[in-house]
Amino acid sequence: MSAGLDPSGRLSAAFTTPGLSSFTDFLSRTAPELLPGRRPLPPGLAADVAPHATTIIAIGCAEGVVMAGDRRATMGNLIASRDIEKVHAADEYSLIGIAGTAGVGLELMRLFQVELEHYEKIEGTMLSIDGKANRLATMIRNNLGAALQGLAVVPLFAGYDLEATDPARAGRIFSFDIAGGVYEEKGFDGIGSGSLFAKSALKKRYRPGLPLDEAVALSVEALYDAADDDTATGGPDLTRRIFPVVMTATAEGSRRLSDDEAAEVAEEVVARRMENPGG
Predict the structure, then answer these.
(1) Cβ contact 213:66 at 8 Å
(2) Is residue 23 assigned to a domain?
(3) pTM metric for this prediction
């Protein structure tokens, strides 16, 4: 019998009674087996049998925030996917990217999108950016059991703070750990196996108040540097026309750069590196 249905095929009262503004709390009461962290797992580690996603970076800029991710997923020493998309809009003014177990991460990302939409429909208003980060932290905490068996996923969350008094500081970035800890980052941050190299590149080039177009170019350059030193991070693929996913969140809302726009930025980065490979 489908979750939530009585023998007559009708929805239970839980589906028709007003109440919870959290979709994950509602799901934990009505169909907990549908939550990623509630599914029973066989004993042992499962990290080697699931594709892993890397690398995501976020950069604050004058207009808001930029988030970019490479397109590679790996499974051990194999490339499991060349064109996975790891950066998405969480809602109208915020972005989420994932690193770690790809399947769990993508499912958690979709659940978070529903969580924010559900809250807005029930409450008639949008969650604050701090509220969104805290809701995401709770969802990560609920996946701790699976994370300890190797199916860890760590998100990067960023968005435009509509309540900020200074528009130049409205772009905010939050990182997380597998236990659900949430930390606000200043300026920029990165996650995934290539983040060490990406953040090292950003340290040399980042400055507060970057214009949006410069932040976009810098994000692609940082991913290029990560791919240069980390085998799990994919660089721009000029042959297959596969380029990083780059998204922005500003006062006008969240937006993904078109394939042509991302290709133009990536090709400019590659052209510069042809003259100076070290950047």
Answers:
(1) no
(2) no
(3) 0.86
Q: What is the CATH number of the domain that holds 196?
A: 3.60.20.10
pLDDT score of 258 more than 60: yes
Find the catalytic residue in 16, 17, 30, 54: 54
pLDDT at 53: 83
Residue 116 corresponds to which amino acid? Answer: L
Respond yes or no: is residue 250 known to be catalytic. no
- End-to-end Cα spacing for the chain: 59
| Residue-range definition of the domain harbouring residue 217 | 46-275
In a domain, 222, yes or no: yes
Which whole number is the average pLDDT over 181-201? 96
In a domain, 180, yes or no: yes
State the DSSP string of 58-124. Answer: EEEETTEEEEEE---EEETTEEEESS---EEEEETTEEEEEEEEHHHHHHHHHHHHHHHHHHHHHHS
